[in-house]
């Protein structure tokens, strides 16, 4: 029996107690796969009150406690508040009274578009909105029906408000009164459920405080790295000093002599030092002596890759987009540019370094993880251990940031932990140091871009030809294998460039895929952070070439796109575009559509020497429906800080096949004193629901660089800005 | 169980005494997290760069990741778990009121740094806040809200104190 199987207070009180937002995995066991459950009464479990559970997503207790069970991972985006709000709206319960429970891994929580439990791509709200509403409405209807039967009135005559049923004669009772009766009712058919009109929403669209704040300001929230199990060991792994290298031999004698070190063993990714606690493991790793075998990437460097990529830029690549005839238009054009843009490798640098707890018990494995991809982790861990995937149980913890890193295509950190745990017969927590995490690869790829573009007599663009050399990222993930074309074009390599909303008649895009040893991965906003920079910078270059104002130029290119125009206008107007700024301050603007949301940003920047100061960012966003508007604001702030951090100084460089940077001293990230004032404006729209976790990131780098150009005349074509101004 | 060859270190954490078996040079961070089982104090960098491990030692903010346990003997150590019994410290209240947290991983350190700032400076200016909080990294970019929440916490703290 594992510590979580008992469901109540037990051997591992920090983990197993069923608590608001802290209990983990308790859904597993009782709930079969599939959608609707036969209504049944959950009762007697650790003498909890009786509960009505019509669906895997919700339970209502006789004590009126409403628990919403969420299968998405919380990595900061506020999903443990936003998704419960949606269900609560139709259930008619104030979201602030909800308990939220982290779901186990079960097909009931699979992504609606994928046969897997997965959190990413800014899809959580857009993909579960309808289902959550339907579950809330169905549960409410069953409660109301139970009340109607008990009171001998028609269900249609009853109304509800915040967990209370009201009859016309003045009688009222809370939902908890009816859980037993509701549990005996059949689940009504889908056709018989009506959802609210948007105009009748009480909670959706109005700011709700996050439900996880309290436990995140008092130290109670349990991240993966906080897991503590009885008899648990802690391990660190000595990984190869260069990507693609391997262990030739090692001498563990001194490591084993370190007090607290329990075992040292080789695993596929390196040599693991297993100890009583983290400090002993770290000391043990320092004492290890390892001979490494060079791999194929031993001499790889940023410079060598730049040279190789530049050579490819001159050659025809795989055709990814061809609209009109960009090559002919360019040949004929008199006013044109031919420019190269470079984007560096970027580490995600999640605040919580990677880690995973694994406990292998014969042919079973239980894990405690902050992960974005539970189903894939289970499959790959099972494959690594040679056991059935059904024998891997994953308990999802809070994620101290994700940004894509906690969904690598190889499930690298859970799989490694399983290898460490194999044969130990004890739970083990594998902890990555900050250095391990920064140097561990899975970066946003290093990309070189060549753009040839031309303008016509009226100054507007007539051709845009983008060729990119980069390592594909989707192709290296389970999700992406489906998306890559048979010619080998990974759509994420070019997304956000040749499909930009700006009207350009002749468009061409070509790709060269590279395959260096450095692992690449999606990084907040995937292709958009790179291509949005290229496209928005080039549009600015063309406006300049035409001698036109960059904001008005964009307006002309967005004619006939009212949502885009409204967002662009809102950002420009709110920022005071064209109005006098403090001396030495300049504006730059950019707009990017990603994950079904449209975001425009105006950056106010000053430059003195090599010092760039971003004073203010004005952001406008249209995400269709803003379920929790204050969290939309928070995600825009977050995306801007994340993108600005990378734009100013973010860069992983490679020497001798390895990352040069290792900790925050060499991989600096934005801090409070350098953070601009950020104004966010939500533009109302009736567009489809868009994502919010990622779309705030792409526009900031080009907005800032366009402002730098306005300030200095210098066009930043290589990020980070610090590398271009050096 | 302690045996003859163990090092016994006595620490006072949140008013409670803990006798632990730790090498004198073990960073307080790992002693708190792995031995005393107070995991609210976080590991972010281990080299005094990020502030995730911020605690108070005798009322002063300190980086647990670069403080050897031997240096903490005889001091009063306060961690996030001991800041208030029920998340009602003015900094915690302000953080909840303004919805500062995102992933939350940095926030123990942010809250402890802010609490220490307000002890020393009940009415910090923007520049004071920038200076005091600049050592605490937040990868979720909650900085704009941290700025606002420190000011709100200062108000709450002043209101709660006898004139
Ligand atoms: S962990 Fe101590 S400052 Fe980063
Ligand atoms: S809230 Fe995530 S790092 Fe600060």
Q: Beta-strand percentage of chain A? A: 15-25%
The stretches of 5 or more residues of chain B where confidence is low (pLDDT under 50) are none
> Which cofactors or ions or other ligands sit in this model?
FE2/S2 (inorganic) cluster
Radius of gyration of chain A: 27 Å
Widest sheet: strand ordering of chain B: 2-1-5-3-4
Tell me the name of the CATH class of the largest domain in chain A: Alpha Beta
Question: Order of SSEs of chain B, N→C?
Answer: EEHEEHEHHHH
The average pLDDT score of chain B comes to: 95
**Spatial sequence of strands, sheet with the most strands of chain A:** 11-12-9-19-16-17-18
- Gap from first CA to last CA of chain A: 59 Å
By secondary-structure content and strand pairing, the structural class of chain B works out as alpha+beta
Shape of chain B: globular
Q: What's the CATH first level of the largest domain in chain B?
A: Alpha Beta
User: How many independent structural domains of chain B?
Assistant: 2
According to CATH, the homologous superfamily of the largest domain in chain A is: Aldehyde oxidase/xanthine dehydrogenase, molybdopterin binding domain
CATH architecture of the largest domain in chain A: 2-Layer Sandwich
The CATH architecture classification of the largest domain in chain B is: Roll
Biggest sheet details of chain B: 5 strands, mixed
Describe the structure concisely for a colleague.
Chain A has 726 residues and is α+β, with helices and mostly antiparallel strands. Chain A folds into 3 domains: 24-217, Aldehyde oxidase/xanthine dehydrogenase, molybdopterin binding domain (Aldehyde Oxidoreductase, domain 4), CATH 3.30.365; 224-295 and 354-431, Aldehyde oxidase/xanthine dehydrogenase, molybdopterin binding domain (Aldehyde Oxidoreductase, domain 4), CATH 3.30.365.10; 302-345 and 443-725, 2-Layer Sandwich (Aldehyde Oxidoreductase, domain 4). Chain A starts with 12 loop residues before the first helix and ends with a helix.
């Amino acid at each position: 029996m594992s510590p979580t199987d008992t469901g109540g207070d037990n051997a591992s009180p920090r983990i197993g107690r069923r608590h608001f937002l802290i209990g983990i995995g308790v859904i597993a066991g009782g709930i079969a796969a599939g959608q609707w459950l036969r209504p049944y009464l959950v009762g007697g479990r650790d003498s909890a009150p009786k509960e009505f559970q019509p669906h895997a997503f919700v339970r209502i207790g006789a004590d009126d406690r409403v628990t919403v069970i969420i299968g998405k991972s919380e990595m900061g985006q506020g999903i443990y508040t936003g998704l419960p709000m949606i269900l609560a709206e139709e259930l008619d319960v104030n979201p602030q009274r909800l308990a939220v429970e982290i779901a186990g891994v079960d097909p009931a929580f699979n992504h609606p578009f994928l046969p897997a439990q997965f959190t990413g791509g800014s899809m959580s709200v857009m993909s579960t909105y309808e289902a959550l509403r339907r579950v809330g409405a169905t549960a409410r209807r069953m409660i109301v029906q139970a009340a109607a039967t008990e009171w001998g009135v028609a269900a249609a005559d009853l109304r509800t408000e915040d967990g209370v049923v009201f009859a016309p004669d003045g009688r009222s009772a809370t939902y908890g009164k009816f859980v037993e009766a509701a549990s005996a009712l059949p689940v009504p058919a889908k056709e018989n459920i009506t959802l609210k009109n948007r105009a009748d929403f009480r909670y959706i669209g109005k700011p709700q405080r996050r439900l996880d704040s309290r436990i995140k300001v008092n130290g109670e929230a349990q991240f993966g790295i906080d897991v503590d199990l009885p008899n648990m060991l802690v391990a660190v792994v000595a990984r190869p000093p260069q990507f693609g290298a391997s262990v030739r031999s090692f001498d563990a004698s001194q490591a084993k002599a370190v007090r607290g070190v329990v075992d040292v063993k080789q695993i596929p990714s390196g040599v693991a030092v297993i100890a009583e606690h983290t400090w002993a493991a770290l000391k043990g790793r320092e004492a290890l002596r390892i001979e490494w075998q060079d791999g194929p990437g031993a001499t790889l460097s940023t410079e060598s890759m730049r040279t190789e990529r530049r050579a490819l830029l001159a050659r025809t690549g795989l055709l990814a987009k061809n609209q009109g005839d960009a090559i002919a238009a360019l040949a004929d054009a008199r006013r044109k540019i031919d420019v190269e843009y470079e984007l560096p490798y970027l580490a995600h640098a999640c605040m919580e370094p990677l880690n995973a707890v694994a406990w292998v018990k014969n042919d079973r494995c239980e894990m405690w993880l902050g992960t974005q991809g539970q189903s894939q982790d289970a499959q790959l861990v099972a494959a690594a251990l040679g056991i059935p995937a059904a024998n891997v149980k994953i308990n999802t913890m809070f994620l101290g940031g994700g940004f894509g890193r906690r969904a690598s295509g190889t499930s690298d950190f859970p799989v490694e932990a399983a290898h460490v745990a194999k044969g130990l017969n004890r739970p083990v927590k594998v902890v990555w140091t900050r250095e391990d995490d920064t140097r561990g690869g899975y970066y946003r790829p290093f990309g070189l871009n060549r753009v040839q573009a031309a303008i016509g007599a009226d100054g507007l663009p007539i051709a845009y030809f983008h060729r990119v050399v980069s390592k594909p990222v989707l192709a290296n993930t389970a999700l992406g294998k489906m998306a890559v074309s048979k010619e080998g074009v990974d759509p994420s390599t070019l997304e956000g460039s040749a499909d930009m909303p700006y009207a350009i008649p002749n468009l061409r895009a070509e790709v060269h895929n590279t395959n260096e040893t450095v692992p690449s991965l999606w990084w907040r906003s995937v292709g958009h952070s790179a291509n949005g920079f290229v496209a928005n910078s080039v549009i600015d270059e063309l406006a300049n070439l035409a001698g036109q104002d960059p904001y008005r130029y964009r307006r002309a290119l967005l004619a006939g796109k009212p949502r885009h125009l409204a967002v662009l206008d809102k950002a420009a107007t709110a920022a005071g575009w064209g109005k006098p700024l403090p001396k030495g301050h300049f504006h730059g603007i950019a707009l990017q559509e990603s994950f079904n949301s449209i975001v425009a940003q105006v950056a106010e920047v000053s430059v003195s020497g090599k010092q760039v100061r971003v004073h203010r960012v004005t952001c406008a966003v249209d995400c269709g429906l803003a379920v929790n508007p204050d969290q939309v604001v928070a995600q825009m702030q977050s995306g801007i800080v994340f993108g600005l951090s990378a734009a100013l100084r973010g860069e992983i460089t490679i020497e001798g096949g390895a990352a040069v940077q290792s900790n925050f001293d060499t991989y600096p990230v934005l801090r409070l004193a350098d953070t601009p004032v950020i104004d966010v404006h939500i533009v109302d729209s009736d567009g489809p629901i868009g994502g919010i976790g990622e779309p705030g990131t792409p526009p900031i780098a080009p907005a800032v660089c366009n402002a730098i150009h306005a300030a200095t005349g210098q066009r930043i074509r290589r990020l980070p800005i610090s590398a271009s101004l050096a | 169980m302690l045996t003859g060859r163990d090092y016994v270190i006595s620490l006072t954490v949140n008013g409670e005494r803990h006798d632990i078996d730790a090498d004198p040079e073990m960073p307080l961070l790992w002693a708190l997290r792995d031995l005393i089982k107070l995991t609210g104090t976080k590991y972010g960098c281990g080299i005094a760069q990020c502030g995730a491990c911020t605690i108070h030692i005798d009322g002063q903010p300190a980086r647990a990741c670069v403080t050897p346990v031997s240096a903490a003997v005889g001091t009063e150590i306060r961690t996030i778990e001991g800041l208030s019994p029920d998340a009602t410290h003015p900094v915690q209240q302000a953080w909840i009121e303004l919805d500062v947290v995102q992933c939350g991983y940095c926030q123990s350190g942010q809250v402890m740094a802010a609490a220490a700032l307000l002890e020393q400076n009940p009415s910090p200016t923007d520049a004071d806040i920038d200076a005091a909080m600049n050592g605490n990294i937040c990868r979720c970019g909650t900085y704009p809200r941290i700025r606002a929440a420190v000011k709100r916490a200062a108000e709450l703290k002043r209101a709660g104190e006898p004139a």
